[in-house]
Amino acid sequence: MTNILQTSIFPEETLHQSYNISSYNRLLSVVKDLASVRTIEEIIEIVRLAARDLTNADGVTFVLRDGECCHYVDENAIGPLWKGMRFPLRSCISGWAMLNKQAAVIEDIYQDTRIPLEAYKVTFVKSLVMVPIRIADPLGAIGAYWSTLHQATPEEIGLLEILTDTTAVAIANVQLFQKLTNQNALKDKFIAMLAHELRNPVAPISNGVQLLKLKVGETGAVGQTVLMMQHQIKHLSKLIDELLDVSSITYGKISLNVEKVNLVELVRQSLNDHAQAIKRSNLNVVQNLPNTPLWAYVDPTRFFQIFGNLLDNALKFSKPDGTIWVDLSFIPGENGSGSVAVLSVRDSGIGIEPTILPELFEPFTQADRSLDRSRGGLGLGLSVVKSLVELHGGNVEASSRGINLGAEFKVTLPVCEEITAWDNDPEIMEAAKKSLKILVIEDNDDSAITLQAVLEHFGHEVSIANNGILGVELARKLEPHVIICDIGLPEMDGFAVAQELSKDSKFNRSILIALTGYGSQEDRQLALQAGFKCHLTKPVDFEILTAEIDRYFDGVLSS
């Protein structure tokens, strides 16, 4: 940007003109301001003020070409000119400057046949200079006006020409920025819709696989095949989530639900969640965790995502019989403040090429650049990790001694200053397995039927409604303990269903769960605002679904 502006406003021939120091400094200020603008309105505001300062004129106008008309967009003058008005190109001096691709310098408007006198008689203007914006293909003009007869000096004309050149570059940059912004908005909309459309067919497949697992177990050829299918479905779901997360993080659409938590327990829980993947990869995990709690203010869900991505990365790039080292340590700050927790995930895997390290956390960057793409992935996991860590006020770094010498990722997070001894854990009582009345509101028959089958396997009584209106009617008739509702429903969407049911006091102790293909942070917030207790994305992991049900279990059954 800087080089473009400098080349544009300070061409070689103008460097030899003698401008006074104040004009030169004012120009530099305008260049600096225009380099960072993002809207045409900002450009107009800067230029209309600067043009008058640089020329000592009694008024200036900022004109944009609008088809075959000149639009006098804004002005800065001692009296009214033509702000907001449009004139045919061939009937005004700004149009003449644009059509002829040159400046119009007029000492006496009443002696120049190009001037439409009727339009000028009601103004203070006696003399003017009109300079087109972008000579090659004019898109507007800047006019300077004087209330007394005035012969514009070469310096005044030169300053206006430099200002119009600068303005042309700024407008081009704004147009490019707006084009990219629009394209990114369309891309985000496409990604969100793609994720939704992918989740819909994946959901019934996932439900069916989980039902098969419950029926046939995990042993034998069929059992092992079911486990493989379940693993691949989880991998596909993770890819969909990463696509949405990268898009949401880029545009600031992710917010954290921060709470005070023990990082030691979160790391242990995450390692337990990955136990099957670790066993399947035939890897050895060495843990080095503190014996006392390490408290920090983090979003637990996002922390699991951070550590999970790093652990998945280590699993992906490690060879069988390799080792992964997981270390969590506390580093005290100076004078009792600035203490941090350092989480390290190190592996004995294929390592990272030095040339890749600087760009490793950029979206779509992958350490595996082989033709066979045997390790898969979109190259988004580490980008998500970096963004989420930074949202928590921390940082992440990667290192490797070279190819086949492993890699290490270190996450540093601020921790609570008070590091207290770990009290005895409160006893956690598992809710008794009781049959619940559950209503599934889902227009995708495959998803609804397979979800019903799995829930009935656990002993629940399940009913189905295939649209929102029928769902509300059945809910009022059955008064279910749990209502699992899709968002994209025909006739009455899931948000409207939640809002309608939330008005009825009989559902105050019901669990209203959104189960949908729409999975952005904004979608989650809209679901909670509509009255859902929680928001889950398809395909749902039944351990997560049952955990959400258990979370509200006591409130549902007590009366």
Automatic annotation (TrEMBL):
<dbReference type="Pfam" id="PF13185">
    <property type="entry name" value="GAF_2"/>
</dbReference>
<dbReference type="InterPro" id="IPR004358">
    <property type="entry name" value="Sig_transdc_His_kin-like_C"/>
</dbReference>
<dbReference type="InterPro" id="IPR003594">
    <property type="entry name" value="HATPase_dom"/>
</dbReference>
<dbReference type="InterPro" id="IPR003018">
    <property type="entry name" value="GAF"/>
</dbReference>
<feature type="domain" description="Histidine kinase">
    <location>
        <begin position="193"/>
        <end position="417"/>
    </location>
</feature>
<dbReference type="InterPro" id="IPR011006">
    <property type="entry name" value="CheY-like_superfamily"/>
</dbReference>
<protein>
    <recommendedName>
        <fullName>histidine kinase</fullName>
        <ecNumber>2.7.13.3</ecNumber>
    </recommendedName>
</protein>
<dbReference type="InterPro" id="IPR003661">
    <property type="entry name" value="HisK_dim/P_dom"/>
</dbReference>
<dbReference type="Pfam" id="PF00512">
    <property type="entry name" value="HisKA"/>
</dbReference>
<dbReference type="InterPro" id="IPR029016">
    <property type="entry name" value="GAF-like_dom_sf"/>
</dbReference>
<keyword id="KW-0808">Transferase</keyword>
<feature type="modified residue" description="4-aspartylphosphate">
    <location>
        <position position="486"/>
    </location>
</feature>
<dbReference type="InterPro" id="IPR001789">
    <property type="entry name" value="Sig_transdc_resp-reg_receiver"/>
</dbReference>
<keyword id="KW-0418">Kinase</keyword>
<keyword id="KW-0597">Phosphoprotein</keyword>
<dbReference type="Pfam" id="PF00072">
    <property type="entry name" value="Response_reg"/>
</dbReference>
<keyword id="KW-0902">Two-component regulatory system</keyword>
<dbReference type="InterPro" id="IPR036890">
    <property type="entry name" value="HATPase_C_sf"/>
</dbReference>
<feature type="domain" description="Response regulatory">
    <location>
        <begin position="437"/>
        <end position="553"/>
    </location>
</feature>
<dbReference type="Pfam" id="PF02518">
    <property type="entry name" value="HATPase_c"/>
</dbReference>
<dbReference type="InterPro" id="IPR005467">
    <property type="entry name" value="His_kinase_dom"/>
</dbReference>
<dbReference type="InterPro" id="IPR036097">
    <property type="entry name" value="HisK_dim/P_sf"/>
</dbReference>
